[in-house]
Request: fold
Amino acid sequence: MATETTSVPARREPRLLGQTVVVIGGSAGIGLETARLARAEGADVVLTGRDPERLERAARDIEAHSSAAFDADDAAAVERFFGELPAPIDHVLVAAYSRPPAYGPMLAMPSEEVGRGIGRRVTQVLEIARHAAPRMRAGGTLLLTGGSVKQIALESGIAPASFTVLPAFTAALALELAPVRVNLIQAGFVDTALAASYFANPEDLEARREELRATLPIRRVVQAADLAALAVHLMVNTAITGAAYDIDGGQQLIG
Reply:
């Protein structure tokens, strides 16, 4: 008589067990989803954000190790945060919503405004890198986020240019901070509350979603969880540095 055996799937060890992940801009959207996934993978998560109440709710929701409310564009606040943060830390995701450059024709903007708009994300990240890197373990990663540089239109103004500088900046920073790794995620449209805020009314937002569902090769809209999955992969894979990853559902393939 044959004996029936039951196979039991091997239990996978959490990929970030024993590591500390800091999410700058972690109270909503991509930052919060990445924090949630990192927490599920065993990490101790430290959240930051501008809005104290929203940050408190997010930290409670994912059982964050700690949280701190400050503006990531405030260099003194960034220095103070990392100076008070217990070392060592393993990964830092910069998902903070940096104040965007103005949209519209560039020739209609003062040159000083154009310069600030292009440089703002770089200076924000430089301050974070300057104070985070000395407290990070070798092999950890500073993970940056930016927008698509492939879609350029008249109304885009300097926005694409402000994102275009990030791949070269990421590569150079990876050399300077080694053995800490530096990588970049470049997103197209991601269905978050921030993306929704750019639309005048809900009908326009839903029309955009429908357009993307119909035209993107993946036949769906990119979600914050998609970026979170890539972010955690880049934290775990210690062979990747100086790289820029497009995650747009194939939007750049269709023009």
Summary: The helical segments are 29-40, 52-62, 75-84, 111-132, 159-177, 193-196, 202-215, 224-236.
